[in-house]
Amino acid sequence: MRMFACFALVVLCFAQDSPKKPNGNGHDNQPQPNMTSPSPVTVNCNQSAGAVAQHDEQKTPKGDAPIEWANWALVLIGGITAWAVWYQSRKTAEATQAMRDSLPLQKTAAEAADKNANALVNSERAWVMADLRFQTESGIVHSTNPLGERTAASVELQIRNCGPTPAWVFQQWIRLEISPKILMSDTPYPSPNQFDRIEGAIGQGTSHMSYEILPIAKDDRPIVWQTEIFGDGWATEQNRLNTYIYGIVTYRDAFDSMRETYFGYRVDGRKLERIPSDAYNKNT
């Protein structure tokens, strides 16, 4: 493109510098007329008509040929320039389309790299598991007060680390609730938290928490938290209510990521049965 532009500039300069016409009308070498006396005029009556015609032909300008050639050169250069612009635009469009076509492949590669990184972290991170049980010779207890019936239980939460790197447990949260809701495995539920309760739960919903920071490695003995929990209501076969105990263990792993372990149980007499739902049996 720069070569075409330089060539066009040279042609323009050549076109503007047209040669002087051969009839002697230039002003540089023309003698100044004598202002004092007129120059003598000689008339040759015997001059032939052919000589006059030949003299007129000599006065015809012949400098227009280079200008016409320069115009045609400019037309040619303009055509070449237009073709070059069109060709460059087409190549740019092709490159843009190729980039768009490669975006799904780049996304797939990024997702694969992310999965590989997560797999590597998961193979090296801490995995904290939580198991709930009644304390020895204990179970749920039925009590009454002026506000109504209540359910109490003496439980212990056992925490162990199944991962290759250590973990630091800094929060244990547990709740007992009485509800007519039956939690089933084939129904999706939201994961439990301190603010939302099981649908139809009785009473206010009391939480029991421990904020003790407890480091634990893979081969360490389980951490045991013993506590008394209670909730409003009492479940019987007649009222078709269910007793649930669930909670969350929160910890940090060796990669400084906050993790959570969810657990949930249904009370069946003096036994605790895991709630058959992924929402109450998951690790983040």
Task: Give a short overview.
The chain is an alpha+beta fold and 284 residues long.
Structural account:
This protein is of the alpha+beta class and 284 residues long. It folds into 2 domains: 1-18 and 59-124; 128-280, Sandwich (Immunoglobulin-like). 30% of the residues lie in helices and 30% in strands. It is built from 3 helices and 10 strands. It has helices spanning 2-16, 49-58, 64-124; strands at 128-134, 140-145, 148-161, 167-179, 207-210, 214-216, 223-232, 242-253, 258-268, 271-274. The strands form 2 sheets. Strands 4, 5, 6, 8, 9 and 10 form a 6-stranded antiparallel β-sheet that branches. Strands 1, 2, 3 and 7 form a 4-stranded antiparallel β-sheet that branches. Helix 1 (2-16) packs antiparallel against helix 3 (64-124). The longest helix has 61 residues, at 64-124. The protein starts with a helix and ends in a 10-residue tail after the last strand. Residues 15-31, 33-38 and 41-53 have low confidence and may be disordered.
Describe the structure using short key phrases.
single chain; 284 residues; 3 helices; 30% helix; six-stranded antiparallel β-sheet; alpha+beta; 10 strands; 30% strand; Immunoglobulin-like
Topology summary:
Elements: H1 2-16, H2 49-58, H3 64-124, E1 128-134, E2 140-145, E3 148-161, E4 167-179, E5 207-210, E6 214-216, E7 223-232, E8 242-253, E9 258-268, E10 271-274
Antiparallel strand pairs: 1-3, 2-3, 3-7, 4-5, 4-6, 4-8, 8-9, 9-10
